[in-house]
Structures are given as structure tokens and as C-alpha cells.
Amino acid sequence: MRTWQTNIATLVILVFFLVAPFLFPNNMSQLSDLMIFILIALAWDMLGGQMGYNSFGNVLFFGIGMYIVASSEVILGGFKLAEYTSAMGGNQGSFILTPSQYLIGFGVGIALASIINFFLGLLIGSQFLQMRGHYFAITTLAIGVAAAEVARSIPIIGAGSGMNFPQPPDGVPLFHILYYMGLALVVLFFIFLSWLYKTRFGFIMNAIRDDEDKAESMGLPTASIKSTAWAISAFVFAYAGALYGSAKNFIDPSEVAFPFTTIGVWMILMAIMGGMGTIWGPIIGAIVFQIFKELFWTYLFGWQRVALGLLIVIIVVFFPDGIMGAFNNWKKRRNLQNTAKAKT
Q1: How far is residue 51's CA from residue 225's CA, in Å, rounded to a whole number?
Q2: Rounded CA gap, 125 and 35, in Å?
Q3: Whose CA is closest to 58, among 183, 240, 199?
Q4: Partners of 163 in the beta sheet?
Q5: Cα separation, 163 vs 300, whole angstroms
């Protein structure tokens, strides 16, 4: 597709998402989830698609971001966190925030969550990214499982009983806020990645994916590139986790905060469905996944996971390179056919 056509298509898609809440006012929860899914698919593809490091541990940052935002809303609302969580299931309704307290707490919390997890990602990445292949994948899987168990043992954040988010005051359109905040980062992250993948940083990421030993022998700074990419991904996952937790309004350590059986699998599935290692693939994969997920959960309830599994099989068997890969292959075949016709 030509550049001007791509730009027009991108603009049309952006305008559609800007007006989507007005077109589908009864589906704000699903739209908010879609923005979150696009973010985590893009962030995971940085590691798995562009750099070849298949990570299951991104849910660590997803859950930590969630807890930081919820705690910030409570603390900046003038309450003690321990008293708030100890009232779980009792009189949490007495902890009422004003609109300004709620919005300030949410804004400060999401900023803290993203920044803290960026540096946490640098720290963890500098250690774990020394491993490769299945050793790295298994270790990151263990991170998510361990994080859920650790959260279950910390009383100040609700331990195994979980933690409620403070209720949004009347007049605060929570899902609209979550949607547009998600859309804002999707646009910024998309622009950032479109630039990053064309820089030396992006080329080194691809070199690591293709042959890391050769990249190191050429003197490329593979260690710092891997850690930085992990940290950027952690930043986005924390932001997405904050939005996701606020939408669900409750943090369960294993089902919501560190859900390696759902989010931990979906983030990879969406990138694979759309096409790993492409800028548009994770976005398309997230959109397709969200549509089918909602259809399955609505019309095939009880069998929704079976249907989702069949969808995965179909994608892997018939579209091994993802939707974008299939499209690019079709476009190449068409170009070859047109060239052959022109010669004859």
C-alpha cells in the first residue's frame, strides 16, 4: 500500500476510534478493554515479535501497576491504606472520594505506576535477559505465578481477599476516561514504535531476533537494548494494568492482577493472530480477538474457551504468519502475477 493510502487509512481508523464512544455508548466496557488489549499486544510484540524473546512475565508489571493506582487513589483521598483494605466486605462505602480527589489519585497513580515499572523493568531485564530461549520463557512464567502468591501474603493490599478500587464519584464518566486514556497511549505508542523500529535501536532488536550471537560478535550493545526494550514494555503494561483494574473495579491477585492464564496468554495470542514482528499486526490481532471473545462469551457461554481454542488452531494452521503475514503474502503473489502479465 502506498504511503498516502496508508496515511489516509490510518487517519480514518483514528477518527473512527475517536467517535466510537458516541457510536457505541452501551459498549464502553468492551471498548476500554480493546484499548488495553491493543496496548499489551504492541508491548509484548516489542519483545516476542521484534526481538525474539517470548516473555510470559509481563503480567508482573500489569499487576503492580494496578495495585499502585488503587493505593494512590486511597492515600491521596486522605485515607490510610491499611484501614481501607481491612474494611473489605464491610464498610468500604464510607471511604468516599470527591471527583477531584479521585481524578488526582488516578492521574498520579498511573504516572507513578508507569515510571516505577519502567525502572523495575530495567532492573529485572538486566538480570533475566541474560537467559535465552525456553529458559527465559519458563523463568518469566514463574515471575507471574510467584507475583500472585506474594500479593496473596501482603495484608495491606488485601492479601488473598483482594482489593477494591475506590468507587468513582457521581459525575465521573469512568469508562470514557479509561477509553480515551487508553486511546491516547495507543496513538503515542504507535507513533513511537513506528519511529523506533526504523532506528538503529530497532535494527539491533531485529539482529538479536535473527542471530544474537552474531550481533554480539559485531560489537552491538545487545544487553542494553534488551533491557531498555523490556523497560519500555513494562511502562506500557503498567499503564494498561492500571486501566484494566479500574475497569474491573476489583483486584484479585491471580484472576485480575497477575492473570497468566488469561492476559498472560492473550497478549501472545493477539500478536500471533495479527502477525508478529509487524507494527499493524498486534493492533489487528487485538481487534479480531476482542470481537470474537465478546461473541463467544455472549453466544457460546460455557463453551467460549473451546471456541477460542478452535480459533487459535485455525489461525495457526491457515494463517501461520498471522493476518498481516497472509495479507503481505497475497500482495506479493498479486504483484508477481501482474509482473508476469506485463512481460507477456
Answers
A1: 10
A2: 26
A3: 240
A4: 251
A5: 30
Give the pLDDT confidence of 284-296 residue by residue, as tens digits: 999 999 998 888 8
pTM for this one? 0.91
How many helical (H) and strand (E) elements, i.e. helices and strands, does the chain have? 13, 2
When comparing pLDDT for 325 and 52, which is higher? 52
Predicted confidence (pLDDT) at residue 211 exceeds the cutoff of 60: yes
**What residue spans define the domains of the chain?**
25-260, 285-344
Count of Cβ atoms closer than 10 Å to residue 72 Cβ? 22
- The set of cell numbers assigned to 134 is 525456553
In this model, does residue 90 exceed pLDDT 50?
no
How far apart CA 315 and CA 307 sit, in angstroms, is: 12
Mean pLDDT of 262-268: 88
Q: What one-character DSSP code corresponds to residue 25?
A: G
Q: What are the φ and ψ backbone dihedral angles of 138, each rounded to 5 degrees?
A: -65, -40
SS3 251: strand
Helix pair angle (263-274, 322-343), 10° resolution: 0
The C-alpha R_g of the chain, in whole angstroms, comes to 21
Q: One-letter amino acid identity for 236?
A: V
Question: Is pLDDT at 234 greater than 90 in this prediction?
Answer: yes
Distance CA 81, CA 95 (A): 11
Strand partners, 164: 250
Contacts for 99-102: CB closer than 8 Å, 24+ residues apart = 99/169, 99/171, 99/172, 101/73, 101/76, 101/77, 102/73, 102/77, 102/166, 102/168, 102/169, 102/172
- Per residue in 63-82, pLDDT (tens digit) is 999 999 999 998 988 888 88
Inform me whether the pLDDT recorded for 89 exceeds 60: no
Position 31 scores a pLDDT of 94
The β-bridge partners of 250 are 164
Least Cα distance to 66 among 123, 109, 118, 119 occurs for: 109
74 contacts 84 by C-beta, under 8 angstroms: yes
Strand partners, 251: 163
Nearest to 282 by CA among 36, 14, 31, 41: 41
Residues 260, 255: Cα–Cα separation, whole Å:
8
All three cell numbers of 344, joined, read 507477456
